[in-house]
Amino acid sequence: MKAELHRVDAGAGWKIALWRYEGGEQPVIMCHGLLANRFSLDLNDKYSLARYLSKKKFDVWLLELRGRGRGYKRSYSPFTQPFKYDWTFDTYVEQDVPSAINYVKNICKKDIFWIGHSMGGMLAYAYANDFKGVVAIGSPAKFDETMKNLMELNKYLPFNLYQFAKTYLLLKGHAFWLPLFAGSVADADLIDEETKKKIIDILVNEGNIYEDVLNEFLIKAGDVTSTKVLSQLLFCAEINELCKYPRFPVMCKRFLKYPMLRKIFCSGSYDLKRFTAPILFVAGDKDKLAPPSAVKYAYENVS
């Protein structure tokens, strides 16, 4: 089974990719997580939620957000044009998501279902409309436990990812390439086997995945994003809510407790009460980056 590639203009010279498995009448858009691409939902013939749904007579559209590019030419190279990778989570909400939805609706002439993994589900929370229904898989809306586990992860890395992301909250964004980061983690000269195991334990429940599948996932499913997306989601984790990119990052944190000043220095939060579509929440009890309590908060606060 082969997917059909559609390139869609999303503004600022960027094109997003939609990979279509045309299996039926009901369209569904599937969206990957933070540092991933379509292969996280369509790994191979045997392990593919996208192909499974296509066989069940859904018209499947795999969305790859701006900056990704396995199997086609990227709009801008992360190596020769890294500072073109200057966008935020809000850019996805305001440009990539509506571009994808409008494109699919124009072709299919039907309302769409949305399936999002991790950040892909968070985008649905933030966009909040235009859905026939949503499935959010491991998509947190509160971040206290997530932050605790991220700080634990940070202790084992060969460089301070937390400080890196905090710094880029204040700077122009550029390309962050997950395969290079993963390569540094896998480097035997930097990290011993015991530490590698601790890192993997935070990121993956190894009891639920075959080793060969995990290895293929690590090779194929990691991709490029903007450092500003990392920084924004870190900021969300620090203040424990899904918020927009702050106008003045340093001042915003200082004035969070003061509503009038917060309006001046911050950019507001995404209101889950705006979300009205039917939604299924999926959480893993061993998920350390999106624990059930973080997903339950979304369940309790959507309309």
Question: How would you describe what is shown here?
Answer:
The protein has helices at residues 49-55, 89-108, 119-127, 144-156, 161-168, 178-186, 193-203, 211-220, 227-239, 249-254, 259-265, 292-301; strands spanning 4-11, 14-22, 26-31, 58-64, 112-117, 131-137, 175-177, 224-226, 279-282. It is α/β, with parallel strands linked by helices and 303 residues long. The chain folds into 2 domains: 4-141 and 270-301, Alpha/Beta hydrolase fold, catalytic domain (Rossmann fold, 3-Layer(aba) Sandwich); 144-265, no CATH class. A hairpin with a 2-residue loop joins strand 1 and strand 2.
Which labels suit this protein?
single chain, 2 domains, Rossmann fold, alpha/beta, two-stranded antiparallel ribbon, 41% helix
